Amino acid sequence: MKTIIEHITKSLNDQHEVVTATIVQKSGSAPREAGTKMMIRKDGTIEGTIGGGLLEAMTMRLAPEVLKTKKCLVQDFELSDSDAATEGMVCGGEVRILLEYLDTLDIYQQNMYHKAQELKSSDTDFVMITKISQKHIVGKNKWICTETDLYGVEDNEVLGIVRELRENFNRIKFHLFTGKHQYMIEPCYATQKLYIVGAGHVSQQIAMLSKSVGFYTVVIDDRQEFANKERFPSAEEVHVISSYGVLRQEVSIPKNSYIVIVSRSHAFDQIILQQALHTHAKYIGMIGSKTKKAHIYGELVAEGFSHKDLEEVHCPIGVSINAQTPEEIAISIVAELIKVKRS
Q1: Which of 3.40.1260.20, 3.40.50.10350, 3.40.50.720, 3.40.190.10 is the CATH number of 193-342?
Q2: Staple 318 to which of 102, 152, 275, 332, CB 3.0 to 4.6 Å?
Q3: Which own/partner contact pairs does 207-215 have at CB distance under 8 Å and 24+ positions apart?
């Protein structure tokens, strides 16, 4: 499935001018969160969604005017309770949408989106910064920041913003930065990768669900009869390792990944958790009771890990729904993954 960035890049390459619509602010029960983006073509077809229904329809009606004037437009929408009912919401809300014209002749614009696609393809985390305090948003008003590089026209205010972003680069949320000018800060992190360590019955159910909600799913076990594509057809990768003690040496787990520990024994879970704590993962969850947690945590503290390190681990794993069957346990775990991803 193509990303919005890929669709935008292709349209610009094909000399097809488009409009992007981004939710920049919301309050109340708006259907999607700030940062949600869609692309609108001249023929009215779209890629992505800002929530569908009335809000999306009203936004699309504004696109022809933006294409005609070649100016950006910031539009506020207020959904009444009756409007909200048509959206399937309990009550109304307020939404601010930025409609941005993308010019096919703007070489800076094209370069920014080509760079964004290149970084996305290489699984490199980046943030797109857009100055939105003027009527025309051109390519020179966009920058791309990674942990080490900055692409775009040199600008002292943007350099200050970049310094702030890099202080907590892997935890940036979409937001508007207001200084001398206003800037839209759009983080674009690499594919959400989930590493399921252990290939039992619960793992099978987790893998099916995680794939359906957009996680790139990797299954790991030390037994070939369990870790194989026949048992995990939906997983992108299945790895058989020689032992859990060499997990990090045999499987590269990038930072910001999600790790679910569901092996066949407490001893293995402890070995896996010990290694997971060194990965800078966005999420680490371990299946087990409070008694198991206390025992394993005690052992790891004795090995030199701090209580602060262990506070980041989700154990018992999953949201509390009184789950009992493998299917129910998987639902609770994937629900927690989604909660962390969206937080």
Answers
A1: 3.40.50.720
A2: 332
A3: 207/232, 207/234, 207/235, 208/234, 208/330, 209/330, 209/331, 209/334, 210/334, 210/337, 211/235, 211/236, 213/334, 213/337, 213/338, 215/258, 215/337
